[in-house]
Write a structure and sequence with these properties.
The chain is an alpha/beta fold. The protein has 11 helices and 13 strands. It folds into 2 domains: 167 residues, 3-Layer(aba) Sandwich (Peroxisomal Thiolase, Chain A, domain 1), CATH 3.40.47; 150 residues, Thiolase/Chalcone synthase (Peroxisomal Thiolase, Chain A, domain 1, 3-Layer(aba) Sandwich), CATH 3.40.47. It binds coenzyme A.
Length: 330
């Protein structure tokens, strides 16, 4: 076992998923695909789609309020609010400031963290750092994504993968050694073009032609991303287990980023964690980017798969490229 003392724990989790369900059969009517192909190649059966009037702020607000309620806290208890999103309602100001206002957390400072699907794990490390530096007693981390607005619904290779939703966690100082035992994160901007939205920013501002060509929507090199995801999540997962003085047998449950069942199975195989100790919910929601892990944690707790003392391994991967892993004792 490692000698490192955990400084920060997750004291509450929550999730918000919009009601509307888009099934694979719905997608069959939109692009040249089939339910069988999507299920076999990705494991996804359906995903949630937020209504037009609901954006990242409103979904984040719902998840944030639910997490605070579960922790028995009020918005004024929040010292720092970190929001992870790749789909802000507006480009300025930050989504975090808008969520802060929506939940009335007037005492905190709030900021956005953009690391695509790895955002939640990066934010958890930031929260841990704020607590270790005694800048905060209560950090609220909100991951909120309206992927449906950046999805190119004419691109069958990517539009079948994503969905909308939000998750939130409250991070507070460890009490009895529970909390984050080890984290390891990386990024490689050399591979930025593998998963990107090329237009709409400063370099390629939107114009009629770029809009027509959907250059402001998500573009992805699926097979390259697939290979990089397995390799990096598996490596990061193995590293944090080793750094924590643990092995695969010590892990009660792995909650990986939910992008593709084949990515999850390969990562688990490499990390030597059997699938009955891996949490999977992507059949219901698809890839909700940074929200997949907090949503997964919340459901795993509800299902009794995570409880006090559980050793939980989380791994994520996303655009950037970014990736990382965190192991914690619940
Ligand atoms: C996108 C992904 C599902 C594609 O699966 P794949 O098995 O790699 O499939 P390929 O891209 O090799 O394509 C195989 C064939 O299926 C076709 N295909 C792609 N999408 C399809 C769809 N939705 N329905 C039917 N056929 C499809 C391709 O056109 C290709 O046809 P071809 O052989 O005639 O050229 C897979 O690569 C993947 O999940 N990558 C990671 C993406 C990801 O997770 N991104 C987010 C990271 S956080």
């Amino acid at each position: 076992m490692n000698n490192r003392k955990a400084v920060a724990r997750i004291s509450a989790t929550s999730r918000f998923l919009p009601d509307q369900i888009m099934t694979n059969a719905d997608l069959e009517r939109m692009v040249d695909t089939s339910d069988a192909w999507i299920r076999e190649r990705t494991g996804i059966r359906e995903r949630r789609i937020a209504p037009p009037e609901m954006g990242a702020v409103q979904m984040g607000e719902r998840a944030a309020n639910a997490a605070l309620e579960k922790a028995g806290l009020s918005p004024s208890d929040v010292d720092i609010l970190i929001v992870t999103t790749a789909t802000p309602d507006r480009l300025l100001p930050s989504t975090a400031c808008e969520v802060q206002s929506a939940i009335g957390a007037s005492r905190c400072f709030a900021y956005d963290l953009q690391a695509a699907c790895t955002g939640f794990l990066y934010a958890l490390s930031c929260a841990e750092g704020h607590i270790a530096a005694r800048q905060a007693e209560t950090v609220l981390v909100v991951a909120t994504e309206k992927m449906s607005v950046i999805t190119n619904w004419e691109d069958r290779a990517s539009c079948v993968l994503f969905g909308d939703g939000a998750g939130a966690v409250v991070v507070q100082p460890s009490l009895n050694g529970e909390g984050v035992l080890s984290s390891h994160h990386s990024s490689n901007g050399d591979l930025a073009s593998l998963l990107q939205r090329p237009a709409g920013g400063g370099r390629l501002p939107l114009n009629e032609e770029r809009l027509r060509n959907q250059e402001h929507m998500l573009q992805m090199s699926g097979p390259e991303i697939f290979k990089a995801a397995v390799k990096s999540m598996a490596k990061a997962g193995s590293k944090v287990m080793k750094d924590a003085g643990m092995c695969a047998d010590d892990v009660d449950i792995m909650v990986p980023h939910q992008a593709n069942i084949r990515i999850i199975e390969s990562t688990a195989r490499y990390a030597r964690i059997p699938m009955d100790r891996v949490f999977v919910n992507l059949q219901h929601y698809g890839n909700i980017s940074s929200a997949t892990i907090p949503v997964g944690l919340d459901e795993a707790i509800e299902e009794g798969r995570i409880g006090p003392g559980s050793v939980v391994l989380m791994t994520a991967f996303g655009a950037g490229l970014t990736w990382g892993a965190t192991i914690m004792r619940w």
